[in-house]
Predict the structure.
Amino acid sequence: MLFNSLHFLVFFTLVTTLYYSIQTKFRWILLLVSSAYFYASFIPVYLLILSVIILTDYFAGLWIEKAVGRKRRYLLIISLVVNISFLAFFKYFDFINANISALLGVAGTNHRIPALKEYFPMIALPIGLSFHTFQSMSYTIEVYRGNQRAERHFGIYALYVLFYPQLVAGPIERPQNVIWQFHKNMEYCPENLKAGLWMIIWGMFKKVVIADRLALVTDDAFGAVADQNGSTLLIAVFFYCFQIYCDFSGYSDIALGTARAMGFKLMTNFESPYFSASVSEFWKRWHISLSTWFRDYVYIPLGGNRKSKIRVYFNLMVVFLLSGLWHGADWKFVIWGGIHGVYLILAQVFKSRPNPQAEKGIIKILNIGWTFVLVAFAWIFFRAVNISDAFVIIGKILTLADYSAPALAINNAELIFCLVLIFLLMCKDYYFPDYVPPKRRFWISAFAFSFLCYLFGVFTTNQFIYFQF
């Protein structure tokens, strides 16, 4: 069930209305059943995978809390291995398989290992698997660290993993932030409902009006890079920066909005990332739930920045290579992560004393612009069909190859409209990041933006980009 569908609109309205209409003690049941239905609307059989993950980590949490000594560590390892095994099997089997086969070929052995689909023709990557396995792992880790009590109520724990607003593409929550809210009696609050509805409308606007419109250009250009000139590819790369931002942050806005409408507060996932004055700051503003997950559960356990300089550089690179691999079973994602790792290592190598002047004026503007260029360059590998295409794109852009008039999939009027939308988006991010219309203007504004979504939206079957992860 896509957020940008009539099906979801009916589903959200019905669930939210019922949530406030029934007794508090039954609300967790409504949310759990609704969330299971939401996920089953994609591929029903994959509820079985989620059920195994939920059962494993529910009992692991209880046993870890009761255990002492090394037994606690062993139980945590078992829980993590089960979660990672599901990811490795469904998401990385063919990737690992292909690389092993390639290495065997180099060694002169022509042994071919069958791909996963040859064993199971109907198999597909469970949607959002990387998100809910990471969220589930955060629970057992926090119980192990003593930061979260093991949840006794099985239904509440299952809801923590299955909660439909953030089930498919995050944010990747921590148990301390969410589980207690499911135990709380959420009274109806008009302000929560209005704030939630506004987040949903704004998120939908970013998705169907901006992201999917920009996709008309980027999908065409990246789909056949050999046929494109340098100017076309340059515009496509620029547009993709905002397409992926509006697509993913739009999903997060809708997720936070649907939860907020029922009184729940999920963690913020984006904070105007393209106003970052450094790559380090960018990762404090982009996909915050994932970047903090790797910080808390990988970077700090590796030693963080408490070790020698070489070890700090190693820790940074490990985190970003894993982050790239998390995004997809393809070397292009690993390269994308590695590029960001190199950026942050170079920032550490050439780190200078804090300069108050760099925090304002023209210097800050230049830093923001340079950071955007660095991030945009890395996005080329993320979006390109393959690594070869990425280098073709870079080559055509950097060598000014055939910088004739761009041959875009849209006309000049639509191009100008896209640029205006990007400008308005940046103004909103900078001046009104948390704006919610006041009471008197709320319903008029909500209706107006909903109408704009209907009028200018690109209503295709485009799912959210991060659904594939």
About this structure: The two ends are 16 Å apart (CA to CA). The chain has a mean pLDDT of 90. The longest helix spans residues 70-106.
